[in-house]
Each structure stands twice: as structure tokens, then as C-alpha cells.
Amino acid sequence: EKPKGGKAAPSAAGTLLSGIASALRGVADGVADSKAWSSIVGADALKTDLQDMWLRSSSLRVLPGASGFAESSASLFDALQKTFDFQIDSVKNQFEHLMSLWRSQCAMVADRSVDANLPVDETNLLEEAIGDVHADLLDGFLHWRKRLQEYGPADVLSRADDGRNLGGIRWVAPPPPALASDGDESLSMQLAEIAAYLLVWGEGGNVRFMPEVIYFITELALSSDTMSLADLYQRQAPGGSESGECALDEATPFKSSLFLSKVIRPIYNAIFEEWYDFVDVDGGNQRDKKKLHADYENYLPPDVANYDDWNELFCDPERLVQGLLLSDGSRLFEQPRGQRFAALVRVDWRASLQPATTKTHREMHSLWGVFGSTHRVWLVHALLFVVGVIAVVRDPIARSGRAQPLGGQTLGERFAVVGLLVPLHALLWSFALWQARGIAARPHRSCGWAFQTLASTICWAAPLATYAALRSSTETDRSLLLLVHFGLTAVGLFFQLFVPSEDSRDKLWPTTSVDWREKFVRYVFWFVVLGVKFLLGTYIFQAVWEAMVELDIAMPGRQTHWEVLQLLHSPTWGANILLWILLWCTTFFLFLSDTQLWFTIACAFMGLGTMLVQRGCKCLTFALEDAVAKIPARFSEKVLPSQYAKDGDKNGAVAAPFSPAFPALWDRIVEYMRYEDKIDNQLMGDLSFDAGAAGRHVYWDELSQPLGNRYVASATPAEEAHGPRRVKVPDIFREKNPLEMAARQMCVPDPNWPQNADVQWRIIALARGLGLPMPRPFRAPYMPGITVLIPHYGESILMMTKELFQDGGRKGELPLMHWLKHTYESEYAAFTSRMQARSEGWPVAGSDWGEYTKAQWDKMNSWASMRMQTLWRTVAGMCLYHPALQCHFEAQADRSSSLARPDVWDPSECFRCLVSMQMYKFFDQTQIDHTNQMFEKLPDCLKVAFIDCQGKGRAADADDVHPRQRRRYFSCLIDKTCDALPDRSRVPKLRIELPGYPILGDGKGDNQNHAIPFMRGHFAQCIDANQGAYFEQMLFLPCALGEFRSRYRGDPQAKRIVGFPEHITSDIGSIGDFAASAEVAFGTILQRTYAALGARMHYGHPDIMNKVFMMQQGGVSKATKTLNLSEDIFAGMDFTLRGQGRTIHHQEYFHLAKGRDLGFNTVLGFFSKLASGTGEQVITRQAFRLGQILHLPEALTFYYAHVGYYFTQYLVSMSLPLLVFVWLLVIFSDCEGSFDAFLSCGSSGRSAAETMAGLLGIWFSWLLLLFLIASSLPLFVEVWSERSFKTALVRFGKQLCTLSPLLFIFQGKIIGHYVTNELRYGGATYVSTGRGLPTERRPFVGEAHGKGLKLKKVGGLYLDYAAITYYDGAMLLAGTVLIAFVGGAGAAQSQLNWIFVSLSLVIVSWLFAPFIFNPYQFEATR
User: Fold this and answer.
1) At what angle do helices 871-878 and 925-937 cross, to 10 degrees?
2) What does the pLDDT look like over 385-425, one tens digit per residue?
3) For 1021-1038, what is each residue's pLDDT tens digit?
4) Residue 946: φ, ψ to 5°
5) What is the pTM of this model?
6) What is the DSSP letter of 704?
7) Where is 739: in which H helix or E strand?
8) Alpha helix positions (H), 1240-1365
9) What whole-number distance in Å separates Cα of residue 424 and Cα of residue 437?
């Protein structure tokens, strides 16, 4: 019998005989090789399937030369499968992937002709496209191979000289090239390299996180000599043990393909053993349980290797050649070139990948790790602080003789102290560097190393030597020494601050160059921010200095060496020195605290300026125009340019200022709004062009009907005879003058303007986006492909009746359905109207939920799911890309193209929605039914990937399945065409075995990685399961893809990540509004500024990425356990580090919807996860290297846009307790009359309390105010620019009235606690917040049994926050009371008003915020 996963036999007679001989050899050896016999029976099956896949299901079949390329590529993949024993399903999957990339690239090649207004010549389209695919997909591979080739001991030939033997495969050559100058060999080589790379990558599993390892295996396969399958893998007789679990068929046990078991799995096993003890199976729910090594639970120790360490071994040709050891102790690269692939089975991966030889960066949970990544930030602050303090300190009293004050007598001598920062920073930085470097990246101790270390020490210590010489010099020599000292100091600071590192250990790839104008803007931005900060700082330094004078504190910098020695043992002098140090340290602490706040405020203004620049600096036009009225013309011009004409027609009539296709397209938008119950029938008629047809009800099936059917059907013969049909333009598109617009905004409502806030936003967002510059859209059918990837774990798929309503629920509690009806009242009324028109049996029951039938509840469940944060809402929204692409095809397709034939064009070839359901294998019946409902309702572009498992079977040992794992794992793909099993789950159409348990990280990154091989097209968009979309925004997809348009082969413009904003739909309740506001500001104005300043990274959600370049850096995220908890940002960091033309942009004409957390605990739980992830992020090699290779403005922006925000929360939260402590210390150290004999008291006449009152009024009065302004200003500016000043002011006032300052203060404390705790103790883990509703109440300490005091469930607000805020709040309250008790509050009361307001806000927030924002907290019955 043919076993599952068995391979087909070769088609050629020679290889057929070879297969028979192989089978006979197996019999002679006593090995029952059923695969060899079954391959004979199934000869040519795979090749036929692949060729049919091309010629029947792909639109490429109609292009010239398609049959030749289909035969060639099918025979190539078939030959590679037979030679290297790839999995059949993996080969089919990657063949389909290649066709998708090929079709997508054909679209982009054809688009170049469209861009040049030339007809598309499809004759050589396939040939040109495969060359472009090769250039982009193998860009990283070719650069890697070039470096390896240049290293002589690697013995790697050039591609032309190598010959690309590919194990001696024989396959049908592609059609003779018409364009390539180097003949058909080049085309054959390109196709062979693409196929080999895709097949290796497709089976890589967790090894895909290490792209250079994939390159390495691909290169060895391409260079492999001709040999039999048995010789290639040195296969032995399959013995092995039997696990006795879940075998599909014990008579024919499952057996892995040889490539997986002999090449990929040994690497995976080495990775697994580095982190984990075992993976067991839970006896209850049958889920997998992984167990980390002892002491690895909180974080991986700094000397444990991870994906990046192993990958960097393959990035360094020298270490790679020396490091790969065979089991006999020899090196892999000592083998002949063509035999290295066969030798892979003998590589000792455990020895080759051991941390002692691969660890290049140590992820230390200490301040050294933080300092290593951010040292230039601290140097900038130290420099500004020292300069500011020296500038305000007056000259000391002149001394006679040579005795000089320690700080220097003159201003020049005091400023010379700045030079000491150079050696001090160099010392600290060197130590941090030594701590951060892994053993493999540390230099070998040799004479050269010793000389280099000595030379650098001398250079960095030079300012110290000149300073010492300066202080011991005479007056005549001092001027020259000052000049030399300042020169050395300037050079040292310049190199430490402004010269990025060129160390090959930090800069593995050339960075992307930046235009000088962009650099200038970034330097000016930071000059302004730091300049404002410095000027305010000098004012504060002056106040601190004057306070010290009034307190008569001894200051060591103004005393000579002999005076210090005389006073050294005096208790008064010691107390003064302690106070002096404490005051200046507190000042420096506060000086550090406010930079991020100034940065945020500056970002608000720069974001506004950037937006105005994008609009051509037409400020008056932007402020006064009726943007909504311009939607038809702008949409036609920018989204439908192929159908847009401004001139009149041939009859002399004035043409409408929009495309003929726009009315039908706009009416389809309105129909979607009606189907979603955002508007009712009356408003639908007011908004539609075809008002007569708009009076009907909208059904789902009608939304997929071709555009304009109504217009064609309703046109009379007379109208057709008289030319273009006349349409009624909705009043919403009637242009209004500024006075009318102002009147309707302020006092007179517009009767035709929707009252639904969501519809208002959608129309305004559409108008606003069309006012921004956007690329020309791709024209159908030349549309490149994109996949939306949605990872799913346990989120709700579809709301259930029992979640919305339970008959006989808890007394006093309203059902969730009632809350939804109240929150979305107008939408529920529209929904009821639509249901009653569709079904006469729909009851007029209102809120009497028990009167509805099961069928009616099914409809209500779907309606509720679209208003909750469910997977149904996300998938339904993202699948709107499908009808949007179809609308583009119907509106402006190039009908002359063969790809535009009705039987050829299919939007599913351009778009795939891929849901990665990690737990589908363990779904209950309800979840399976909900998944099937998605398949039934949504287009065929919807696919689901999931992880399947089964017992590892008798062949486990022969297949090298890890002995401490009890299962085999498979990556599977299903869709609506798959057959159903008895439990209604689907039979996978593709089932690809994985090397082992795939979830080795925190989950999400691994879940994305296993699904990536099922993605299609050139582009990817990673979406969370709490998002949504709007049809009118989906129509911008061809424009968004235009951001990646390449002008020629290898154009670096294609190497992009393009970010887009999100519309936060969860602004319900005060907490939801606060969270939504922060997200709106971050996703729009702040990211706009970060992109302009060169420090925007990837944040996961609507960002569109060039998938082929993301494949070359290990995927769309990273997945090292704990370290990559914030998995998505690392995609942007790696993208920036890899340089070579890669850039990250931000555009705002395209939006997706997103839901955020609504409850107090869930919002703070989300921020705790972010803060913990940031604590891990700052110690990674990505953060470390960006801190070294970026120019200073980009490095500062990167810090304050990411890690700095979280550290600032900690600094601001700690500032008030620190001030109270210093305040008390100064008051208690004040002079008293009874101790005059022992204390030296000043004669200023002011008490310490009065002095501190004056100092505090300057010292801190601005900080909390600045904190609150920085928290609100970006949102205020963004809402003002999007809507109006009135709207921004109302929203700001509403947030103040609903106590937003209390939440922001409490949130800052939580963030500061978690980010610092992560650096101390680790423990970062994914926090499943559940995105709870604002109606969910949290108990005080737990849920009690009935009327008793015994708790049946422990956990509540007190236990949640006692150690984080309550204890600190109580201590702060006690300190404040003590200050008042000892008289600190009575002096200079007017100067202390703001400090006591700040103290009151912080104390109330830390002690009472959880209870203030807890629903039903103050109900007596609770």
C-alpha cells in the first residue's frame, strides 16, 4: 500500500529503472521500502498535478509561453522532490506559491507599461517576471552567497562556474528566452534557484526564523553532486520504537520525508534542547505542555543561545567554515563542494550550535544591558546637565597663593570638567560592551588586540590627562592647555555622540542612506527639543544653586583640597555634603524625566507640520474647503484614474466632475453601510445616486452582484439614445461655502448628514484620505497579490446566545444584549427594520429577549459579533478586499488584456485571507461550527491554517523525532472546498509535517511562522483578531500597493514596510475613551512624526509589508521565548538593521478599524504586557545595534518613541516620592536655636521650609503639568486637524471631567513598575486581557460565598495593586502629612499650591483610582 506522504516515481525510463533497482536493493538488504515500490506505481502523478495546477487554475495559463513554463516548472519541482525527498504537499504548496509570486510580478511588470502610458506587451511577460522574482526573492541569498564566495577557505565558486548541479536532476528546460542576453541557461538557473529556495524554506519550520540557515541549505542543495537518494542521506534501515499513540494506521506507520528528518529536524532538535526539557500531553484536554529548563521560566539566561545567535553564525563566513563540525570531528567545509549536502546528515548540530561558539550578544537583565543600548542618550543628558550647572554657578571667592577650589577658579577651568565625561563614558561604555558581547563576538586576546586596546585607552583618557595638567599648571601655560583640552574634549564627544559605529559586529549589513534634507530636519528637531529643555534646565539649576546658598550648604567644588581635608571629619560638613549630593542628584533625576515629555509635545507640532506639508502647505484651503463635497472628483482622479475625464462629451454637455463608474461604486459603499445597519433606508436614499433603487432592502447576495446592473437595467432606450445617463448627485456632495459649513457645525444641523458617529467618521476619513497624496493605483487585471494573516488562539469567533442573554440571569444584572442595544440604539433599530422586511415572522419584541427564536438569535448573534471584538468581525472586514478588487475590475479593467477575460480574472488570485488557528485541532463543536459559518458566508479567498498532531509512531527514531516529544506535528490548510469529518471539522487539503513542536516562543510569532508558507502574493498584512474594516477603505488597496511600485528590476523602492493608522472603535465609557484616545494619537500624529524622524518601526497592524523581503529576515515577527514578547516590533527593527535600501514609511489615506480594551483592569493588563515586553526589548541585540549604528537624531527618536516612553513613566512616577523625601530631609536638617553651639547656621534669615517652598515652586511645578499636557496634546492636535477645534476642545474637556488625569497617573505607575521589574526579575509573558467590557466589575479581594465571609474565588482590586500603588500611595500620604506636621507646608504657601495639587492628584490616583473606575463600586448592594 502507498503510505501517507509517499512520493511519486520518476517519469523518465532511466530513473524508473533506477527506482526499481533501489527497491530491489532494499529487499536484498531486508528492508521493506514501500516508498520505493509505491513511487513506481505513482509515476508522473506529481508532475501531472503541478502542470494541471498551472494550466487549469492559474490565470498565467493565458499568457504567451505559459504551456512551456508550466511543463518546465512542474518537471523541475517534480525532479527536486524525487532527488531530495521533499514532502509532496509541501512541493504542491510551494509550486502554488511560485505561481502566485509569478502572477503578482507579471502584474508589476505590466504596470510599468501602464505607468508610461504604453500598451502592455504580454509576449515576454512571464520571462521578465521570473527574472524580477529571482532578483527580489533571492536578493538576500545572492548577497550572502557573494560574501561566502569571497572568503577563500569556503571554496565556493561563482554561480556561473558552479553549474548548479542540483543533485543531478533532469528537467524540461524553460522556453528559449527572447530577452535575456546570456541565453537560456540564465533563465534555467534562475528558475532552479527559486524552486530550491522555496522548497527548502517551505519545510524549514522553526528554522525559518534563521534565514541565513535557509540560504546555507539551499546553496548546498544547488551545488550537490549527482547521487542516489540513499547515498544523499546515507539512509539506514528504518527500525525505531513505537509510541503506541494515535497512529493513523499501524499497518503502515507514518514516516517522515528524508529532507525533513535528516536535514531540518536535527537543527530543530538542537534548538529545542537549548531551551526545553520536554513537551508532554495533558491527560485532561490532550493539549501539549512544554517545560522549560530549570531557572529558565522567568527569562532565558544571558549565555543561552537563541535564533539570532545561531543565524549570525551563518552570516559570518569565517565562523561558519570553522564552526560546522561533523560527528567525526572534521569540518563540513573540508568536504568536496558537491558532497557537502550529503554530509549534512553527519553534522553534529549540538556541538556546532553550542552557545560557547555561537553566542554573539548577551541579553542581560541588568542596567548594564540598558546602558549598552542607550549610552548616547545618557551622555547627551550628562553633557547638558554639567554644562548647565557650570553655567549658573558663580565664581568662588578668590584664594591667595596656589590653592585653588576643586572645581576651578575661573569659568574656563570649570568648563574643563566637561572633558572628564569623555573618559568616564568610555569606561562605562567599554564595560557595558564587554558585558553585552557574547563569547563568540569577543576579540581573541593577541598582541594586536592588546595594542588596539592600549591605543584606544590612551585616546579616550587624553582629556583626563590634559585636565590633570591644566589643574597643576601655572597661569602662563593655562591658556594653551585649555585650548588643547577643549579640542580633545570636542573630538571625543563628537566621536562618542555623532559617529555611528562601523564595527562589523554591530553593522552586519550596509545601512540605508538618508537624504541630507531629511538629516537636516532631524537634527533641527532635536536641537529645538534639547535647546528648550536646556534653557528651562538652566533656570531650574539657578534655583537649586540659590537654594543651596540660602541653606548655607558646604559645596566641595568651591573649597580647596586643604579645606576639604580639614572639614572631612566634621559631622556638619558630612551632612552638608550628603544634602548637596542629594539635591543635585534629584535635580539630575528630574532633568532626565522631562525629555520624553518635551519630545511628545514637539512631535505634536511636527506631526501637524508634516500633515500640512503633505497637503502642499495649503493651510487656508485645508481649513476652509468642503472636503466631503470633493469626494467624487478626488476619488475619480486618484482611485479611478483610468475612467476619469474632466472634459465635456461630444454633444457639448458638461460632464460630471467624476468618473462614470463612481455613482455605482458610491452606491455600493452606501449599500454596505445599510447592510451593516449603520444607516436606515431613508438615509440610504439621501446618500445614494440612484435613490429609487436605494429604497429597497439590501441582502448579502446582492452585494456581490456586478456594479452598475441597476443603472444598465433602469436606463430607458430614449436615455441610451441621447448619450450619457443623468444621475442625481446626493446633497452631501453639494459644495458648501465656509459660512454654511461653520453654521452647520455650530448651530444648524445638516438634515442630510448622518447622525451615526461611525458613519460620520467613515465619510470624513474618506474625504481626508482623498486629500492626501497617494500613488497611482494598479489597474486590474494587473493587480499584485496580497495576503492578510490573522493569528488566532482562543478569541471569540462568533457571539453565542448564552453570552448575550441568559434567561433567569443574576438579579440586578442586565444581559449583554441589552447593553449592546442601548449602546448602538440606532443601529439596532435599522437591524430590526431590515429583519422585519426580510421575514414577516420577526417579532416586535424589543428587549423581551426570551421571545426570539433560535433562528432569530442566530441573526442577532451575527449582528452583535460585528459590534464586539470577535474574529468574525475581523475576517468579515478583511474579506472586503475581495469585492473591492472585483469592483476595481468592473470599473476600470484593461479589457484588452488576456488576463481580463471573464473566465480568467479571479480576485482570489490577488487576495487571500489566511486565519492561523493555532488551536483548531482542539476546538469544541461550537467553535468548529462557527468556523464553518465563516467558510459558508465569506468568499473562497478565506483559508484557515492550523497545527495538527498525531502520535509519533514506530518510525519515530528512524525519523529523528525528538525523544522528549510525544507527537508529530503538521501545518495544515483548509477551506470551504475541503470535505467534512463526522465532527464537522475539515479534512486538510495540504498537510505538511513540521520538524517538531512549533510553539517554542510565546505563541503568536510561532503561530504566524507555521502559516507563512500558505501566504500568497508579494505582500503581507498582519492583522490582530480584534480589528475590522470598511468597504470604502478597501477600495484604496490598489493605491496602497502602489507604494511598493518598482521602476526597474532590483529597485530598492520595493523594500518597504508601509504603515497606516487605525480607527479605534472602542471609545465606549471613560476608560475605553482614554485607551482609544492614546491609540489614536499613537497611530496617527506620533507615527507620522516617527517616520519623518527615521525611527518608525513595525507595530503589527494595518502595516503592509513586502513579503518576499520579510521572508529574507526570518518572517514577519520573532519568537524567542520571553525575549520577543513584543514580537511585531522586531520585524521593523530587523528590517532597519538589514538596510540595503530598506525603508519604513507611514501614510494616512487608508484605515482599518480596531477595538481596544474597555475595562480598567484589561487596559492596565495590556500596558503591563507592553511594559514587560519593552523591558525585554531594550536588552536585545536589535535595540543594542540600533543604538550604535543610527545617527544621533534617529537614535534619540528611536529611544524616546519606544523604550524611553516606558522609562519616563517610571521616572515621573518616582519623582514626587523622591521630592517628598528630599523636602523632609532639608526641613529636618534646618538649624534650631537650641543647637546653635553645634551647628553653623546661615544668616539669610529664611528657614529651610521657606527655601524649599521657593525651590519646589520652580523645581517641580512644571513637571506634572507637562506630563498631563504631553498625554493630551497629540490627541488634541490630531482631532483638531481631522475634525474641528470645537470637537477637540469638547473631547479634551470631557476627558478632564471624567478624571483622565487620575488614570494617566495610575497608568504611568503601572508601566514604570512592570518595565523595571522585568529588568530585575524577568517573567514577561503574554497577558490575555479578554478586552472586557466597561460593565465588568472587579471585587475588592475576591468573590464571597453567599452571605458569608469565606471566599470562593480569590482575586480583586486590592490584591491586584497593593504592592504596586497602594503601599507607595500610603507612604506618599504619610510623608505629605509629616511635612504639614513639621511646618513645611506653612511657609510660602502661595508657592506650594501647585505642588500640593500634584501631590493630591498622585495620592488620590494611587490609592483610589481602581475603585473610582470600577463599575458599580459604590452601590450599597455590592
Assistant:
1) 20
2) 999 999 988 877 766 666 677 777 788 888 989 999 999 99
3) 999 988 999 999 999 999
4) -150, 165
5) 0.91
6) G
7) helix 738-746
8) 1248-1259, 1263-1282, 1285-1297, 1300-1321, 1357-1361
9) 20
